[in-house]
Specification:
- By secondary structure, this protein is mostly helical.
- It has one domain: Growth Hormone, Chain: A, CATH 1.20.1250.20.
- 80% of the residues lie in helices and 0% in strands.
- It contains 15 helices and no strands.
- α1 runs antiparallel to α14, α3 runs antiparallel to α7 and α13 packs antiparallel against α14.
- The longest helix has 37 residues.
């Protein structure tokens, strides 16, 4: 912000344009993952977003930087829909909660270590170097994924026959034949809209924290740059732990023969309730470390809700998990698009405390939406 002369609104717009490109490509990404397979789509995505990570450090013109961030979002879009397709074919019915949660936990372990690593790189080499180094690592991961991954366990030489048989007998798909998602059926199902609506709120909240948490801690609690690594990373670590824990508990509940609403919906609702209560306590304290403790529980709660969203999307979509999860993530990223911009605008005018208190309203709405998701009723029979 300082180097490029950006105010909070302009900086928030950078995040929003990324989310716009990401959101617009969610449904197409789900379709493409179902058509061409997650291995190919994720390889393309990894290469694309690594290139645009590097370009983020190169470009200094505001207009060009906005374009780079938009295209960055376009390239990263296949990530989650492709993984939803991957999980549908590689994991059994009683394993999808853990599979979805491990993917998300990996994604959100990044912000645990990123503040420490980023600040060290910025201090040693300047902020541009962060994007060069992270982009290079992305290219390495793309090569590893392309070499190791396969679309189906039946195609993988490292999967033994007993494991293949177990997966094929227990996964929640009808066939591995490629077909086109029945949108005419989806658009008549209330659960299709409900899962998207609640996920809009999930990503609205996460987008706000991801972009503004370091700024909030600096402005509200006077945290210095050199001390920011731990306090900014701690909430994401708690989120990482609770995402995994939520997935484990969800699958345990499901394996005991209870409904998917109990296994997915109740845990998601519990996560939202934890978020609301923790946020109230966080805003009532002036002590930095007490504040970070409650903010950590905030993100942990919303993380549990997010993990259950992806598990429920595969439950609803089955063979068309890519399309359903892409639809859900489209609306989630519209939420992520709006929240950094709206939060920056409001924080400039009414302050951080009032801005954060207002988040409770959409979270209550998300709780209500879970009663309409109905993960026990797949959107189609295939």
């Amino acid at each position: 912000m300082k180097d490029l002369g950006m105010n909070k609104t302009q900086f928030g717009l950078l995040a929003s344009l990324f989310s716009l490109g990401y959101a617009l490509m969610q449904v197409p990404s789900g379709f493409l993952a179902e058509k061409f397979g997650p291995r190919k789509m994720l390889t393309i995505a990894l290469v694309w977003w690594s290139a645009f990570t590097i370009l983020t450090g190169v470009v200094k013109n505001h207009g060009m930087l906005y374009a780079v961030r938009f295209l960055f979002g376009v390239g990263e879009a296949p990530m989650y829909p492709s993984n939803a397709v991957f999980n549908s074919f590689w994991f059994g019915k009683g394993e999808k909660g853990r599979a979805s949660s491990m993917l998300l936990a990996g994604s959100y372990f990044g912000p645990v270590i990123a503040p420490v690593i980023t600040i060290a790189i910025v201090t040693a080499f300047g902020w541009e170097a962060v994007f060069y180094i992270f982009g290079f690592i992305g290219f390495v991961i793309a090569i590893l994924w392309a070499v190791i991954a396969k679309d189906l366990p039946e195609q993988h030489k490292m999967v033994n026959e007993a494991e293949k048989r177990f997966i094929m007998e227990n996964r929640d798909v009808v066939s591995t034949e490629k077909s086109v998602a029945p949108w005419n059926i989806f658009l008549k199902r209330g659960g299709f809209y409900a899962i998207a609506a609640q996920y809009f709120v999930v990503q609205f909240v996460i987008g706000l924290f991801l972009i503004w948490l370091p700024t909030y801690l600096t402005e509200q609690h006077g945290v210095k740059l050199e001390d920011l690594g731990f306090v900014a990373g701690a909430p994401w670590f708690v989120m990482f732990i609770l995402i995994i824990l939520g997935g484990i508990i969800s699958d345990k509940i499901l394996q005991q023969g209870t409904s998917k609403f109990m296994a997915r919906g109740v845990i998601a609702i519990f996560g939202f309730v934890v978020f609301c209560i923790s946020l109230i306590f966080a805003l009532k304290t002036d002590d930095l470390y007490v504040n970070v403790f409650w903010l950590s529980l905030c993100l942990g709660g919303i993380g549990m809700s997010m993990g259950m969203s992806w598990a429920a999307a595969t439950d609803l979509g089955r063979n068309f998990a890519g399309t359903v999860s892409g639809w859900m993530n489209l609306w989630g990223n519209i939420g992520a698009l709006l929240s950094p911009l709206l939060a920056g605008f409001l924080a400039d005018r009414i302050g951080w405390t009032m801005t954060l208190q207002l988040i409770i309203i959409p979270v209550v709405f998300a709780i209500i939406m879970w009663f309409f998701v109905k993960p026990d009723k797949p959107l189609t029979k295939s």
